[in-house]
Specification:
Elements (H helix, E strand, L loop, with lengths): L4 E9 L3 H16 L3 E2 L6 E8 L4 H20 L4 E6 H13 L5 E3 L7 H9 L4 E3 L20 E5 L1 E2 L10 H5 L3 E2 L2 H13 L4 E5 L7 E2 L4 E2 H11 L4 E5 L8 H8 L7 E3 L7 H7 L5 H14 L4 E8 L6 H14 L3 E6 L7 H5 L6 H24 L5 E9 L6 E6 L4 E5 L8 E9 L3 E6 L3
Parallel strand pairs: 1-2, 1-3, 3-4, 4-5, 5-6, 7-10, 10-13, 14-15, 15-16, 19-21
Antiparallel strand pairs: 8-9, 11-12, 17-18, 17-20, 18-19, 20-21
Helix pairs in contact: 6-7, 7-8, 11-13
Bound molecules: S-adenosylmethionine and iron/sulfur cluster.
Protein backbone atom coordinates (compact mmCIF):
# COMPACT_ATOMS: atom_id res chain seq x y z
CA UNK A 1 0.00 0.00 0.00
CA UNK A 2 2.83 2.39 0.78
CA UNK A 3 3.97 2.34 -2.86
CA UNK A 4 1.06 4.56 -3.94
CA UNK A 5 2.35 7.53 -5.89
CA UNK A 6 0.83 10.65 -4.24
CA UNK A 7 0.75 12.58 -7.54
CA UNK A 8 -0.87 9.88 -9.62
CA UNK A 9 -4.60 9.60 -10.18
CA UNK A 10 -7.05 6.96 -11.29
CA UNK A 11 -10.60 7.73 -12.49
CA UNK A 12 -13.47 5.22 -12.31
CA UNK A 13 -16.13 6.30 -14.77
CA UNK A 14 -19.76 5.29 -14.35
CA UNK A 15 -22.75 6.01 -16.56
CA UNK A 16 -23.15 7.54 -19.99
CA UNK A 17 -20.80 8.52 -22.80
CA UNK A 18 -21.00 12.12 -21.59
CA UNK A 19 -19.34 11.00 -18.35
CA UNK A 20 -16.68 9.16 -20.34
CA UNK A 21 -16.00 12.34 -22.31
CA UNK A 22 -15.90 14.33 -19.05
CA UNK A 23 -13.31 11.94 -17.60
CA UNK A 24 -11.13 12.73 -20.64
CA UNK A 25 -11.48 16.45 -19.86
CA UNK A 26 -10.71 15.84 -16.18
CA UNK A 27 -7.60 13.84 -17.14
CA UNK A 28 -6.37 16.81 -19.21
CA UNK A 29 -7.06 19.25 -16.36
CA UNK A 30 -5.22 17.12 -13.78
CA UNK A 31 -2.25 16.64 -16.12
CA UNK A 32 -2.07 20.40 -16.58
CA UNK A 33 -2.13 20.72 -12.77
CA UNK A 34 1.01 18.57 -12.47
CA UNK A 35 -0.62 15.21 -11.69
CA UNK A 36 -0.08 12.03 -13.67
CA UNK A 37 -2.38 9.16 -14.66
CA UNK A 38 -1.85 5.90 -12.80
CA UNK A 39 -1.95 2.64 -14.76
CA UNK A 40 -4.06 1.04 -12.02
CA UNK A 41 -6.05 2.01 -8.99
CA UNK A 42 -3.79 0.14 -6.55
CA UNK A 43 -0.81 2.44 -7.11
CA UNK A 44 -2.78 5.71 -7.39
CA UNK A 45 -2.55 8.29 -4.62
CA UNK A 46 -5.72 9.98 -5.87
CA UNK A 47 -8.89 8.07 -6.76
CA UNK A 48 -11.81 9.82 -8.45
CA UNK A 49 -15.27 8.40 -9.03
CA UNK A 50 -17.06 10.06 -11.94
CA UNK A 51 -20.58 9.18 -10.89
CA UNK A 52 -24.00 8.63 -12.46
CA UNK A 53 -27.31 9.49 -10.77
CA UNK A 54 -29.77 8.52 -13.50
CA UNK A 55 -31.05 5.32 -11.91
CA UNK A 56 -31.14 4.12 -8.33
CA UNK A 57 -28.97 1.08 -9.01
CA UNK A 58 -26.24 3.29 -10.53
CA UNK A 59 -26.20 5.33 -7.31
CA UNK A 60 -26.12 2.12 -5.23
CA UNK A 61 -23.05 0.96 -7.15
CA UNK A 62 -21.25 4.20 -6.29
CA UNK A 63 -22.26 3.68 -2.63
CA UNK A 64 -20.76 0.17 -2.60
CA UNK A 65 -17.60 1.42 -4.23
CA UNK A 66 -17.26 4.17 -1.67
CA UNK A 67 -17.48 1.63 1.15
CA UNK A 68 -14.51 -0.25 -0.38
CA UNK A 69 -12.56 2.99 -0.67
CA UNK A 70 -13.29 3.77 2.97
CA UNK A 71 -11.46 0.56 3.91
CA UNK A 72 -8.54 1.43 1.66
CA UNK A 73 -8.25 4.89 3.14
CA UNK A 74 -7.93 3.36 6.61
CA UNK A 75 -4.82 1.51 5.43
CA UNK A 76 -3.38 4.36 3.36
CA UNK A 77 -4.26 7.56 5.13
CA UNK A 78 -2.93 9.99 2.53
CA UNK A 79 -5.14 8.49 -0.22
CA UNK A 80 -7.20 11.34 -1.69
CA UNK A 81 -10.75 10.38 -2.68
CA UNK A 82 -12.93 12.62 -4.84
CA UNK A 83 -16.45 12.06 -6.14
CA UNK A 84 -17.32 14.06 -9.23
CA UNK A 85 -20.20 14.16 -11.71
CA UNK A 86 -23.91 13.73 -11.25
CA UNK A 87 -24.31 12.12 -7.80
CA UNK A 88 -22.86 14.97 -5.71
CA UNK A 89 -24.52 17.54 -7.98
CA UNK A 90 -27.83 15.81 -7.32
CA UNK A 91 -27.50 14.90 -3.63
CA UNK A 92 -25.44 17.96 -2.64
CA UNK A 93 -24.29 18.61 0.95
CA UNK A 94 -26.08 15.59 2.53
CA UNK A 95 -24.04 13.28 0.27
CA UNK A 96 -20.79 14.96 1.36
CA UNK A 97 -21.79 14.83 5.03
CA UNK A 98 -22.68 11.14 4.79
CA UNK A 99 -19.24 10.21 3.42
CA UNK A 100 -16.64 11.86 5.67
CA UNK A 101 -13.79 9.85 4.11
CA UNK A 102 -14.43 11.56 0.76
CA UNK A 103 -12.05 14.52 0.50
CA UNK A 104 -13.90 16.56 -2.10
CA UNK A 105 -16.87 16.52 -4.42
CA UNK A 106 -17.27 18.47 -7.65
CA UNK A 107 -20.25 18.77 -9.99
CA UNK A 108 -20.01 18.72 -13.81
CA UNK A 109 -19.45 22.50 -14.14
CA UNK A 110 -16.60 22.58 -11.58
CA UNK A 111 -13.84 20.49 -13.10
CA UNK A 112 -11.47 23.41 -13.68
CA UNK A 113 -11.09 23.58 -9.88
CA UNK A 114 -10.12 19.90 -9.49
CA UNK A 115 -6.31 20.22 -9.41
CA UNK A 116 -6.56 22.87 -6.70
CA UNK A 117 -9.06 20.74 -4.80
CA UNK A 118 -6.62 17.82 -4.74
CA UNK A 119 -3.89 20.12 -3.41
CA UNK A 120 -6.27 21.45 -0.74
CA UNK A 121 -7.28 17.93 0.22
CA UNK A 122 -3.62 17.08 0.85
CA UNK A 123 -3.56 19.96 3.31
CA UNK A 124 -6.61 18.60 5.08
CA UNK A 125 -9.37 20.77 3.60
CA UNK A 126 -12.66 19.11 2.64
CA UNK A 127 -14.27 20.95 -0.26
CA UNK A 128 -17.63 20.77 -2.00
CA UNK A 129 -18.06 22.56 -5.34
CA UNK A 130 -21.42 22.11 -7.01
CA UNK A 131 -22.04 25.53 -8.55
CA UNK A 132 -23.81 25.72 -11.88
CA UNK A 133 -22.00 27.62 -14.61
CA UNK A 134 -24.33 27.82 -17.57
CA UNK A 135 -21.56 28.97 -19.87
CA UNK A 136 -19.02 26.25 -19.08
CA UNK A 137 -18.20 24.08 -22.11
CA UNK A 138 -14.53 23.44 -21.24
CA UNK A 139 -13.09 25.49 -24.08
CA UNK A 140 -9.31 25.53 -24.29
CA UNK A 141 -8.99 22.02 -22.84
CA UNK A 142 -7.64 19.26 -25.06
CA UNK A 143 -9.21 16.05 -23.69
CA UNK A 144 -6.86 13.11 -23.13
CA UNK A 145 -8.77 10.46 -25.03
CA UNK A 146 -9.04 6.85 -23.96
CA UNK A 147 -8.80 5.41 -27.50
CA UNK A 148 -6.87 6.20 -30.68
CA UNK A 149 -9.52 5.35 -33.29
CA UNK A 150 -12.92 6.54 -32.04
CA UNK A 151 -13.29 9.85 -30.23
CA UNK A 152 -16.09 11.53 -28.31
CA UNK A 153 -16.67 15.20 -29.05
CA UNK A 154 -19.16 16.88 -26.68
CA UNK A 155 -21.04 19.51 -28.70
CA UNK A 156 -23.50 20.65 -26.05
CA UNK A 157 -23.97 20.19 -22.32
CA UNK A 158 -27.05 20.19 -20.09
CA UNK A 159 -30.75 19.66 -20.82
CA UNK A 160 -33.67 22.09 -21.02
CA UNK A 161 -36.34 19.38 -21.09
CA UNK A 162 -38.22 18.31 -18.02
CA UNK A 163 -38.98 14.62 -18.39
CA UNK A 164 -40.81 13.59 -15.24
CA UNK A 165 -38.48 10.69 -14.35
CA UNK A 166 -35.12 12.30 -15.04
CA UNK A 167 -32.42 13.91 -12.88
CA UNK A 168 -30.29 15.21 -15.75
CA UNK A 169 -31.69 18.78 -15.82
CA UNK A 170 -30.66 19.04 -12.13
CA UNK A 171 -27.31 17.27 -12.45
CA UNK A 172 -26.14 18.95 -15.63
CA UNK A 173 -27.95 22.26 -15.67
CA UNK A 174 -29.19 24.31 -18.62
CA UNK A 175 -28.32 23.60 -22.25
CA UNK A 176 -25.32 25.34 -23.75
CA UNK A 177 -23.63 24.60 -27.07
CA UNK A 178 -19.99 24.66 -28.04
CA UNK A 179 -19.30 27.26 -30.75
CA UNK A 180 -19.15 25.85 -34.28
CA UNK A 181 -15.67 27.18 -35.02
CA UNK A 182 -14.21 25.43 -31.97
CA UNK A 183 -15.89 22.14 -32.89
CA UNK A 184 -14.53 22.28 -36.45
CA UNK A 185 -11.01 22.94 -35.11
CA UNK A 186 -11.36 20.04 -32.69
CA UNK A 187 -12.67 17.71 -35.41
CA UNK A 188 -9.74 18.62 -37.69
CA UNK A 189 -7.36 18.04 -34.77
CA UNK A 190 -8.83 14.57 -34.30
CA UNK A 191 -8.40 13.75 -37.99
CA UNK A 192 -4.79 15.00 -37.90
CA UNK A 193 -4.11 12.76 -34.88
CA UNK A 194 -5.32 9.72 -36.82
CA UNK A 195 -8.79 9.26 -35.35
CA UNK A 196 -11.16 7.53 -37.79
CA UNK A 197 -14.50 8.15 -36.09
CA UNK A 198 -16.00 10.96 -34.05
CA UNK A 199 -19.20 10.79 -31.99
CA UNK A 200 -20.85 14.15 -31.42
CA UNK A 201 -22.26 14.04 -27.89
CA UNK A 202 -25.01 15.81 -26.02
CA UNK A 203 -27.93 14.86 -23.76
CA UNK A 204 -30.10 16.35 -26.50
CA UNK A 205 -27.60 16.54 -29.26
CA UNK A 206 -30.13 17.68 -31.86
CA UNK A 207 -31.06 20.78 -29.91
CA UNK A 208 -27.51 22.02 -30.61
CA UNK A 209 -27.55 25.70 -31.52
CA UNK A 210 -24.79 28.20 -32.24
CA UNK A 211 -27.04 31.22 -32.70
CA UNK A 212 -24.14 33.58 -33.51
CA UNK A 213 -23.05 31.36 -36.40
CA UNK A 214 -26.66 30.65 -37.44
CA UNK A 215 -25.96 26.94 -37.09
CA UNK A 216 -28.32 24.20 -35.85
CA UNK A 217 -27.50 20.52 -35.46
CA UNK A 218 -28.15 19.64 -39.11
CA UNK A 219 -25.79 22.46 -40.17
CA UNK A 220 -23.22 21.25 -37.65
CA UNK A 221 -23.30 17.69 -39.00
CA UNK A 222 -22.82 18.93 -42.55
CA UNK A 223 -20.02 21.27 -41.49
CA UNK A 224 -18.18 18.51 -39.63
CA UNK A 225 -18.63 16.24 -42.66
CA UNK A 226 -17.01 18.89 -44.88
CA UNK A 227 -14.21 19.61 -42.37
CA UNK A 228 -13.08 15.99 -41.96
CA UNK A 229 -13.97 14.07 -45.13
CA UNK A 230 -13.50 10.32 -44.74
CA UNK A 231 -13.94 10.41 -40.97
CA UNK A 232 -16.98 8.49 -39.70
CA UNK A 233 -19.42 10.72 -37.86
CA UNK A 234 -21.88 9.50 -35.23
CA UNK A 235 -24.07 11.42 -32.81
CA UNK A 236 -26.08 10.71 -29.69
CA UNK A 237 -28.59 11.20 -28.03
CA UNK A 238 -31.39 12.59 -30.20
CA UNK A 239 -34.73 13.67 -28.80
CA UNK A 240 -37.77 12.75 -30.94
CA UNK A 241 -39.18 16.28 -30.76
CA UNK A 242 -36.06 17.72 -32.42
CA UNK A 243 -35.70 15.24 -35.30
CA UNK A 244 -36.49 17.35 -38.33
CA UNK A 245 -36.63 16.48 -42.00
CA UNK A 246 -33.72 18.88 -42.54
CA UNK A 247 -31.63 16.85 -40.09
CA UNK A 248 -32.53 13.51 -41.68
CA UNK A 249 -31.69 14.88 -45.13
CA UNK A 250 -28.32 16.09 -43.82
CA UNK A 251 -27.56 12.56 -42.57
CA UNK A 252 -28.73 10.98 -45.83
CA UNK A 253 -26.70 13.47 -47.88
CA UNK A 254 -23.29 12.61 -46.49
CA UNK A 255 -21.45 9.31 -46.99
CA UNK A 256 -19.54 9.87 -43.74
CA UNK A 257 -22.48 10.36 -41.38
CA UNK A 258 -23.51 6.99 -40.00
CA UNK A 259 -27.02 5.87 -40.80
CA UNK A 260 -27.90 5.21 -37.22
CA UNK A 261 -30.25 7.23 -35.03
CA UNK A 262 -30.64 6.52 -31.34
CA UNK A 263 -34.11 7.86 -30.64
CA UNK A 264 -35.36 7.12 -27.11
CA UNK A 265 -39.12 6.55 -26.99
CA UNK A 266 -39.42 5.34 -23.36
CA UNK A 267 -43.01 4.06 -23.77
CA UNK A 268 -45.47 3.10 -26.49
CA UNK A 269 -48.46 4.58 -24.66
CA UNK A 270 -49.53 8.15 -25.31
CA UNK A 271 -50.97 8.48 -21.81
CA UNK A 272 -47.67 7.36 -20.23
CA UNK A 273 -45.65 9.58 -22.59
CA UNK A 274 -47.74 12.52 -21.45
CA UNK A 275 -47.20 11.63 -17.79
CA UNK A 276 -43.50 11.34 -18.58
CA UNK A 277 -43.69 14.86 -20.08
CA UNK A 278 -41.82 13.72 -23.18
CA UNK A 279 -43.54 16.23 -25.46
CA UNK A 280 -44.88 13.81 -28.08
CA UNK A 281 -47.49 11.09 -28.52
CA UNK A 282 -47.07 7.52 -29.76
CA UNK A 283 -48.48 8.56 -33.15
CA UNK A 284 -46.13 11.54 -33.47
CA UNK A 285 -43.16 9.29 -32.71
CA UNK A 286 -44.30 6.76 -35.31
CA UNK A 287 -44.75 9.55 -37.88
CA UNK A 288 -41.14 10.64 -37.25
CA UNK A 289 -40.00 7.04 -37.79
CA UNK A 290 -41.92 6.92 -41.09
CA UNK A 291 -40.37 10.22 -42.16
CA UNK A 292 -36.86 8.97 -41.31
CA UNK A 293 -37.35 5.65 -43.11
CA UNK A 294 -38.90 7.27 -46.18
CA UNK A 295 -35.69 9.30 -46.60
CA UNK A 296 -33.25 6.60 -45.42
CA UNK A 297 -34.74 3.11 -45.80
CA UNK A 298 -31.45 1.53 -44.65
CA UNK A 299 -31.24 3.49 -41.39
CA UNK A 300 -30.70 1.64 -38.09
CA UNK A 301 -32.92 2.81 -35.25
CA UNK A 302 -32.23 2.14 -31.58
CA UNK A 303 -34.05 3.36 -28.49
CA UNK A 304 -34.37 3.57 -24.69
CA UNK A 305 -37.37 2.02 -22.93
CA UNK A 306 -38.64 2.30 -19.36
CA UNK A 307 -40.93 -0.42 -17.95
CA UNK A 308 -43.30 0.17 -15.06
CA UNK A 309 -43.50 3.95 -14.99
CA UNK A 310 -46.01 5.42 -12.52
CA UNK A 311 -49.59 4.13 -13.07
CA UNK A 312 -48.62 2.07 -16.16
CA UNK A 313 -51.27 -0.58 -16.76
CA UNK A 314 -50.75 -3.94 -18.35
CA UNK A 315 -52.52 -2.70 -21.48
CA UNK A 316 -50.14 0.29 -21.67
CA UNK A 317 -47.15 -2.02 -21.25
CA UNK A 318 -48.53 -4.01 -24.22
CA UNK A 319 -48.60 -0.77 -26.22
CA UNK A 320 -44.84 -0.55 -25.67
CA UNK A 321 -44.48 -4.12 -26.97
CA UNK A 322 -46.63 -3.30 -30.00
CA UNK A 323 -44.62 -0.16 -30.75
CA UNK A 324 -41.45 -2.26 -30.62
CA UNK A 325 -43.05 -4.73 -33.06
CA UNK A 326 -44.01 -1.88 -35.34
CA UNK A 327 -40.68 -0.05 -35.40
CA UNK A 328 -38.44 -3.11 -35.04
CA UNK A 329 -35.53 -1.35 -33.36
CA UNK A 330 -32.07 -2.78 -34.00
CA UNK A 331 -31.40 -2.75 -30.27
CA UNK A 332 -32.54 -0.95 -27.13
CA UNK A 333 -31.36 0.13 -23.72
CA UNK A 334 -34.09 -1.21 -21.45
CA UNK A 335 -34.70 -0.22 -17.82
CA UNK A 336 -37.34 -0.58 -15.17
CA UNK A 337 -38.49 2.67 -13.67
CA UNK A 338 -36.71 3.77 -10.52
CA UNK A 339 -38.11 6.80 -8.78
CA UNK A 340 -35.55 9.57 -8.37
CA UNK A 341 -36.06 11.85 -5.38
CA UNK A 342 -37.17 15.38 -6.20
CA UNK A 343 -38.10 14.72 -9.83
CA UNK A 344 -41.52 15.78 -11.11
CA UNK A 345 -42.72 12.16 -11.05
CA UNK A 346 -41.55 11.75 -7.47
CA UNK A 347 -43.43 14.87 -6.40
CA UNK A 348 -46.60 14.33 -8.40
CA UNK A 349 -47.17 10.68 -9.29
CA UNK A 350 -47.46 7.44 -7.30
CA UNK A 351 -44.68 4.90 -7.87
CA UNK A 352 -47.42 2.29 -7.76
CA UNK A 353 -46.30 -0.49 -10.11
CA UNK A 354 -45.02 -3.26 -7.81
CA UNK A 355 -41.34 -4.13 -8.19
CA UNK A 356 -42.08 -7.67 -9.33
CA UNK A 357 -44.43 -6.36 -12.04
CA UNK A 358 -41.84 -3.80 -13.25
CA UNK A 359 -39.24 -6.55 -13.53
CA UNK A 360 -41.62 -8.98 -15.27
CA UNK A 361 -42.59 -6.30 -17.82
CA UNK A 362 -38.94 -5.44 -18.38
CA UNK A 363 -38.20 -9.11 -18.95
CA UNK A 364 -40.89 -9.27 -21.64
CA UNK A 365 -39.47 -6.15 -23.28
CA UNK A 366 -35.96 -7.64 -23.24
CA UNK A 367 -37.12 -10.94 -24.69
CA UNK A 368 -39.01 -9.23 -27.50
CA UNK A 369 -36.05 -6.96 -28.30
CA UNK A 370 -33.67 -9.93 -28.36
CA UNK A 371 -35.94 -11.74 -30.82
CA UNK A 372 -36.21 -8.65 -33.07
CA UNK A 373 -32.46 -7.98 -32.90
CA UNK A 374 -31.69 -11.59 -33.80
CA UNK A 375 -34.04 -11.47 -36.77
CA UNK A 376 -32.57 -8.17 -38.00
CA UNK A 377 -28.96 -9.19 -37.46
CA UNK A 378 -29.55 -12.51 -39.25
CA UNK A 379 -30.58 -10.56 -42.34
CA UNK A 380 -26.91 -9.55 -42.66
CA UNK A 381 -25.72 -13.17 -42.94
CA UNK A 382 -24.41 -13.73 -46.47
CA UNK A 383 -23.96 -9.98 -47.07
CA UNK A 384 -20.85 -7.88 -47.00
CA UNK A 385 -20.73 -4.88 -44.68
CA UNK A 386 -18.20 -2.13 -44.09
CA UNK A 387 -16.62 -2.29 -40.63
CA UNK A 388 -14.28 0.12 -38.89
CA UNK A 389 -11.92 -2.18 -36.98
CA UNK A 390 -11.48 -0.86 -33.44
CA UNK A 391 -9.64 -3.49 -31.41
CA UNK A 392 -8.31 -7.02 -31.42
CA UNK A 393 -10.97 -9.41 -30.21
CA UNK A 394 -10.69 -10.33 -26.53
CA UNK A 395 -10.84 -14.04 -27.30
CA UNK A 396 -8.31 -14.36 -30.14
CA UNK A 397 -5.87 -11.89 -31.66
CA UNK A 398 -6.47 -13.43 -35.10
CA UNK A 399 -9.84 -11.67 -34.94
CA UNK A 400 -10.76 -7.99 -34.91
CA UNK A 401 -13.76 -6.24 -33.38
CA UNK A 402 -15.41 -3.26 -34.98
CA UNK A 403 -18.76 -1.71 -35.85
CA UNK A 404 -20.77 -1.14 -38.98
CA UNK A 405 -22.07 2.34 -39.81
CA UNK A 406 -25.38 1.08 -38.40
CA UNK A 407 -23.59 0.46 -35.09
CA UNK A 408 -23.66 -3.33 -35.18
CA UNK A 409 -20.73 -5.00 -33.43
CA UNK A 410 -18.78 -7.32 -35.75
CA UNK A 411 -16.08 -9.84 -34.85
CA UNK A 412 -14.14 -11.09 -37.86
CA UNK A 413 -11.06 -12.97 -39.03
CA UNK A 414 -8.63 -10.17 -39.56
CA UNK A 415 -6.93 -11.18 -42.81
CA UNK A 416 -4.15 -8.62 -43.17
CA UNK A 417 -6.08 -5.85 -41.40
CA UNK A 418 -5.58 -4.07 -38.11
CA UNK A 419 -7.36 -1.61 -35.80
CA UNK A 420 -8.18 1.64 -37.63
CA UNK A 421 -8.78 -0.04 -41.01
CA UNK A 422 -12.11 0.20 -42.79
CA UNK A 423 -12.70 -3.41 -43.81
CA UNK A 424 -15.25 -5.08 -46.06
CA UNK A 425 -16.45 -8.07 -44.06
CA UNK A 426 -18.49 -11.02 -45.29
CA UNK A 427 -20.99 -11.91 -42.57
CA UNK A 428 -21.25 -15.62 -41.82
CA UNK A 429 -23.13 -15.72 -38.51
CA UNK A 430 -25.23 -13.59 -36.16
CA UNK A 431 -26.47 -13.50 -32.59
CA UNK A 432 -28.87 -10.88 -31.23
CA UNK A 433 -25.90 -8.68 -30.26
CA UNK A 434 -23.00 -9.45 -32.62
CA UNK A 435 -22.24 -10.30 -36.23
CA UNK A 436 -19.40 -12.65 -37.09
CA UNK A 437 -17.54 -12.90 -40.39
CA UNK A 438 -14.32 -12.72 -42.31
CA UNK A 439 -12.45 -9.93 -44.04
CA UNK A 440 -13.18 -10.01 -47.76
CA UNK A 441 -11.38 -8.29 -50.57
CA UNK A 442 -13.67 -6.58 -53.06
N1 LIG B 1 -31.38 12.62 -23.08
C1 LIG B 1 -31.72 11.33 -23.47
C2 LIG B 1 -33.18 11.29 -23.90
O1 LIG B 1 -33.96 12.12 -23.54
O2 LIG B 1 -33.55 10.37 -24.56
C3 LIG B 1 -31.49 10.27 -22.42
C4 LIG B 1 -30.67 10.55 -21.24
S1 LIG B 1 -30.89 9.48 -19.86
C5 LIG B 1 -29.38 9.79 -19.12
C6 LIG B 1 -30.71 7.86 -20.50
C7 LIG B 1 -31.90 6.97 -20.30
O3 LIG B 1 -32.01 6.57 -18.95
C8 LIG B 1 -33.24 7.58 -20.60
O4 LIG B 1 -33.52 7.63 -21.96
C9 LIG B 1 -34.19 6.66 -19.85
O5 LIG B 1 -34.59 5.58 -20.65
C10 LIG B 1 -33.34 6.16 -18.70
N2 LIG B 1 -33.78 6.75 -17.43
C11 LIG B 1 -33.67 8.03 -17.04
N3 LIG B 1 -34.22 8.20 -15.82
C12 LIG B 1 -34.69 6.99 -15.42
C13 LIG B 1 -35.37 6.51 -14.27
N4 LIG B 1 -35.69 7.32 -13.26
N5 LIG B 1 -35.69 5.20 -14.20
C14 LIG B 1 -35.37 4.36 -15.22
N6 LIG B 1 -34.74 4.76 -16.34
C15 LIG B 1 -34.40 6.05 -16.45
FE1 LIG C 1 -33.44 13.48 -19.08
FE2 LIG C 1 -35.47 14.03 -20.72
FE3 LIG C 1 -33.32 15.62 -20.69
FE4 LIG C 1 -33.16 13.16 -21.71
S1 LIG C 1 -34.42 14.85 -22.50
S2 LIG C 1 -31.69 14.11 -20.32
S3 LIG C 1 -34.50 11.99 -20.40
S4 LIG C 1 -34.77 15.32 -19.03
Amino acid sequence: MSDRNPRSFFIHTFGCQMNQADSEIVTALLLAGGYEPSPDEESAGIVLLNSCAVRENAVDRIGNFLQQLKGRKRKYRSLVIGVIGCVPQFEKQPFFDAHPWVDFVAGPDNYRALAAMVANAREGARLLKIDYDHRETYGGIDPVRAGRICAFLPVMRGCNNSCAFCVVPVTRGRERSVPLSRLLDEARGLADSGFREVTLLGQNVNSYLDAAAGCDFADLLEAVGRAVPGMRIRFTTSHPKDISEKLVRAIAGSPDICRHIHLPVQSGSTRILQLMRRGHTREEYLRKIDMIRSIMPDVALTTDLISGFCTETDAEHRETLSLMQEVRFDSSFMFYYSVRPGTWADRNLPDDVPDGVKRARLQEVIELQNAISLERYRQDVGRTVEVLAETESRRADSRLMGRTGTNRAVVFDRGGFGPGDLVTVRITDATSATLAGEAARE
